[in-house]
Amino acid sequence: MTSPAARVPRHIAIIMDGNGRWAQQRHRPRIIGHRAGARAVKSCVEFCLDNGVQALTLFAFSSENWNRPSDEVGGLMKLFLGALEREVDELHRLGARLRFIGERARFAPEILARMQAAESLTAGNARLQLSIAASYGGRQDIAQAARALAEEVAAGRLRADQIDESAISARVALADLPPPDLFIRTGGELRISNFLLWQLAYTELWFTDTLWPDVDAATLRRALDDYAGRERRFGLTSAQVAGHATGGTT
Ligand code: FPP
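Above: inputs. Below: predicted complex with farnesyl diphosphate.
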């Protein structure tokens, strides 16, 4: 029998969609929805800490989001900076290790410096690995891994025939974490939208119509309960998976 603890996803990855619609429903500017979304991030982090989830990766800003109207991009940057100024000490106190994945060079120096400071401050924490995907794209992530491998081959440190799945896995973002067990997308769209493409290969997918700012512990509990009832086969048969679970060989 699999123990209840083994049924808690070690790593959850979330596309936090629906902030704009949440604001529109209230006839408010979109940035109000993003602010409400930031509050939902806090309760999601608390939920993960309370439930023994070891890693949480949040898609805060995609490579494509730079093309949104400039007032929305500017509002989001202000929101990120404010969150970095206000929340990092508390996250540190709670034992969260914070890191950022994506093309960080595109951010303003002020934000960049805060990101680096948050990563250094929290580097030794182990209770929750909290990763924020910012200016992130899954294809870009795979492309930079390919570029790194090509450079190693060109430098004579690696042979082309040594490039296998594990070589790529070691060079994409979050290489030191287990890949996400559970992917959640809120806001009703049924897409992966260029998030963690390599890392999500065997991840269980869970979608909800709930808009991100309305997500609370009850929503996340439903996702975890659904996950706990699923059989993960990783390409094996059910019988093989049952053999693994009881310690048998297949
Ligand atoms: C998608 O909703 C959400 C975003 C592009 C931004 C996510 C940002 C936050 C949740 C706020 C703060 C985050 C951190 C980590 C402090 P959308 O705007 O595409 O919604 P829509 O589909 O309803 O328009």
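The pocket of farnesyl diphosphate is lined by residues 16-21, 34, 37-38, 41, 58, 60, 65, 79-80, 83, 132, 187, 212 (CB under 6 Å).
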